[in-house]
Each structure stands twice: as C-alpha cells, then as structure tokens.
Amino acid sequence: MAVELLAPAKNCDVGKVAVNCGADAVYIGAQRFGARKEAGNSILDIATLIEYAHRYMVKVYVALNTVLQSDEEVHDAVRMLRTLHDAGVDGAIIQDMGLLEAGLPPMPIIASTQTHNANASSVQFLEKVGFHRAILARELTLNEMAAIRKATSHIELEAFVHGALCVSYSGRCYLSLANGGRSANRGECAQPCRKRYRLEDAHHQTLAEGHLLSVKDMCKIHMLDALLDAGITSFKIEGRLKDTAYVANVVTAYRSALDTVLARRGATAFPDKLTARVAANLTKTFHRGYVAGFAEGAKKMANFVTPKMMGEQVGRVVAVSGNIVTLNIPRGIEIASGDGLCFVSGDALKGTGVQQADGHHLKLRDATGIRVGALLYRNRDQHFLTQLEKSRTERRVPSIISAAFCNDTLTLVATDTQQNTARVSVTEGLSSARDSEQTLKTWKKQLAKTGDSEFVIKQLQMGGAELPFMPVSQINQLRRQLLDQLRAKRHKGMMRIRDRHAMQYSPSPYPGVVDSYHNVTNSFARRFYQKCGATDVANGIDADGSGLRIKVISSRYCLRRELGWCLKADTQKKHTGGLFLVDLDTPGEQRLNLRFDCDVCEMSLFQESEHE
C-alpha cells in the first residue's frame, strides 16, 4: 500500500497550502454534516480544491462524519455525496452507518474515528462490510495497531500523528451534549473538557483544581518508522479549524520527516519538487504541549494550568519597572517587537505583547501580574510567522519533454515522474530551419517555459533530424496543449484508482450489542445493523438525549494516574474512594461522577446530580 501524508483543510485556500507543502491527500468538511460544523465548505469550493489538488495527484477526501438524525438528512447527505463524486472527490469519511443503506455513489468510503475503531474485531467488521479505510482511535498503542493490521488484510489503516487530542474516545463523548445541548456527534462540541474543574471526594473535600480534563496535543513525528512497522499507511494531521500558517508549518515538518524515513527504507521517493525557504518548527505554531498519546503506553498527558498555547520558555524575569521587564534570556533566543508572551499568574495563564525589545530589556503592552522570578513563554513568534507567510512553499511536478522530427512529422512527448505520458504530433505547417542551431535554441527555450503551472521541465530531449522552424507563438501553443494532455492523463489516472476502490457494500455479522452508544439515529442505520444480525438495536443518545444520567465520557485518560494515584502502579499515594468533578467555570452545574475500570485502564464520567 502507498504511504500517505494526510493534511487538514479548513477551506479551499488552506487546502491549497497543504498541497503546496507536500501533502499526499487533504480532507475537508462538506457543506453540512461534518464533525467540525464551523468548517463547512460549499460544493463549488470543494470542487475548486479538487481541481487544484489533482494537478499534483493529491487526493481530496470529504468529511461527512456526523450522525444523521432523520431519514431526510440521510437523503440530503447522499445527494451531496453524489454531487461531490461528480466533482471528482476521492473518498468520503463517514460516521453514520445508515449511509451504506441509502445508495452511496461509487467511491471509497472511510470509517471515521467517530465509529470507535479501537479494536481488531471492530476493524475486521468494517473490512468485511466493504470500507476502504478505517481511521483508528487515537488511544491505541503501537502493539494494538499492529494487532489490528495482523487481523485484517486489505483495509487501509489511518492514524492521527499530530494535533489536538480528545479526552474521550471519539464518538463516545456526550459531555457537551449533556451540559449545553451541543453534540460532538453533530459537529457542535463546545469543548467543556477544556474548562476548569475541582476534584472532590465523596465528602466534598477538594483534592485538586485546574483544567483536569485538558490533555496536551499529539506529536508522533519521532514515531513514523514505528507506525509504518505497525501497519499504518496514512498519517493524519488533525486541524480542520487551523489557519494556513499552522498547516504550512506542520505539513512541511512531517513531509521532511516522512521522506527521511521512506528513503531509509528504500521506498519510492516523493515525486514532486518542493521549494521552501523557511525551516519548519513545530514549537512555533499552536500546541498545548506535546505528548505521543498512548502509542508508547500510558503516560501523564494533561496540562492542568491552561488549555491554551504556552509556547517556548524564553526566560526568567529578573526585574520589573512599570511595563519594562528585564529577562534572563538563554543564548540563541531573540525576542522582537510583535511577539506574544504569556506567564502563569495564580491559577491562570495571562498574556501580553512585546512593544519594543532591546536585548534582555522588553517594553510590554501590559506587565500587570508579572513578578520577579516569573517564567515567560513566547506563544507568538512574529518573525517566524512573517517569514512563513512571505515564503510560501512552491510545488512542481518534474517532467521530461522530448521533441523529434521524423518522416515529416513533429512529435512532442511529455512524461512525469509517475510515468504518465502525453503526446502531440504535427504534420502540417512545418518548414525547414534556415539556422538550425538558433532554431534548436528557440525550441529548448520555449519548451522549458511552464509559467505558473504545476510542471517544471527537468530534462529536454531533442532527437531525430533537425527540428523544423515554427513561430514562437505556435511552439508555446503546442507546449500548452501537451501539458494540458498530461494534466488530463494524471486526473484520469486518479479517477481510475478511485473507481477501483469504490465501496462494495456487503452486510456482515456484527460482533457485539448495538447499544445507545452506537449512535443509531435514523431508520437506515437501524436497517444496517439489523441486516448485520443485530436483533435489539437501541436508539442512539443523540436521537433523544437519553436523559441526564448517562455516561458522558469513556476514556483511557485517567485522573488517578495523572495525579499519581494509580491503583496498579507502585506508589504510596492511592485514592480508592469516590471521586467527583465540579465545573468551576459554570456555577450550578451538576457534578460528574468518576468511575474506573482498572482491569482495562479506562475512566468513565457520569452526569449525575449531587445527591446521588
């Protein structure tokens, strides 16, 4: 299977940046029914991105991965997918199984991580049903990924390698729905996990306070080799709400790292030429601190201080006078006007901006709360972001053009690095050259020009007899015709690949009970599970809310472990009594009851009233 670097696209413009920086594929939200409701895109904009991406043989997947709450929504979603199929989209990411019963167009179908792809039996089922790919749960270890690969044959496995982590298993979080009616399974998550909470025991004694559910961001750039060994072939960058600077920086970093790994393995090199003038730096764009998630085993993952970006530590305060702050700045760090700084004050993260910098002395927009001894962090590097904006990466497709004149026929042939070939022949309007040397120079000069197209001519081959004379305008016209044909060949090749991997839906026995957490919210989804052998299909929680007493989070993240109280670890501090979380940002909210299944290292949160 081909290895793929998959990048997010908030919109068409961000998608183009991802393509330019070396993505092999991009994913973008549909106009409706995407798991990031704020990142929806019109059919026209998606079609524009598809046309641009296909020039570089980059795939475009559309995310249509919410649950559908009525049969009417299922029909609307299918109509949308048919239009996107006609526009050339390379695949669809879905959560709602009802779509399989509603007559999908012939395209590859990808099972969203929202479908809880967390074990081998679940992914085996998806493979048997006909899914082309499964996006694995973020919580899986390398060994668990490898076990899924071993248990399956042809289904592609996609894994997140960078970006935000959810505290809950995707598709199994109802905290936002329970607290404010905004469902994560409908693309409306209000991110209540990023709030401040107080951890209490059964007697209302405070045990801890802070952003207790706010996990750091994922970064697995050092694990690409190991992920390949585990059977992952699509490396996914999270971030469909991120801007162009974020996408450019992160895609560039992972493109370089992945190419290094593939070269070491003797794999086929990245086919295109990238020109970038700014080195990527993952510390410079938004992150909450980096962890590898659970891939390397359970480790501490949260930042209790803030869910915001702190950035890089730039120095400790040695003096404060009004808005003038003096720092002890380590060698190699330069702070400049326009930089953003932050610091911890009490139990909160506060920010300010640099108005003027003179070595270790900074004039800040506001120094309120900064004390001698405080650590300052830079969460906005103005110079880096400016250079990143000015130095946009260019991507070109290296190609060879050959020209030959034989038997009164002029033939031009263009070939790209993936062996796509186009040919143009001319038999009329040709005349012998009076100055063969000058004519050859003219041909070479004009054939090498590709303007702002995606092509770059890496080699010109002039064979056969002397080339005929032809006006420059006609040479240019032939070159454009030749490259247009090559572009069309590349697009047709992609469509053949898409059609070859189109889903062949085949109901298969479902390995388990279809409870309310399977998110069945329409009759098509119910029919799907019934065809797969389920006799008692429960209504999904998103269908009716299921009241207040529900399990709102299922998670491998564990507060006991995070606080050093793990019952399975060799530690002196263990807390075995009842634990509760109280929302500090929204007074009057009900408490969350924490329950632990230590046999499988999972924590659950239940929405219950205080007296229970």
Record keyword descriptors for this entry.
globular, alpha/beta, 27 strands, Thrombin, subunit H, 14 helices, single chain, 612 residues, six-stranded antiparallel beta sheet, TIM Barrel, eight-stranded parallel beta barrel, 26% strand
Structure commentary:
The chain is of the alpha/beta class and 612 residues long. Among the domains are: 4-165 and 216-284, Aldolase class I (TIM Barrel, Alpha-Beta Barrel), CATH 3.20.20; 312-390, Beta Barrel (Thrombin, subunit H), CATH 2.40.10; 397-500, no CATH class. The protein has 14 helices and 27 strands. It has an 8-stranded parallel β-barrel with strand order 1-2-3-4-5-6-7-11, surrounded by 5 helices. It has a 6-stranded antiparallel β-sheet with strand order 9-8-25-26-27-24. A hairpin with a 2-residue loop joins strand 17 and strand 18 (361-364). Helix 1 runs parallel beside helix 2.
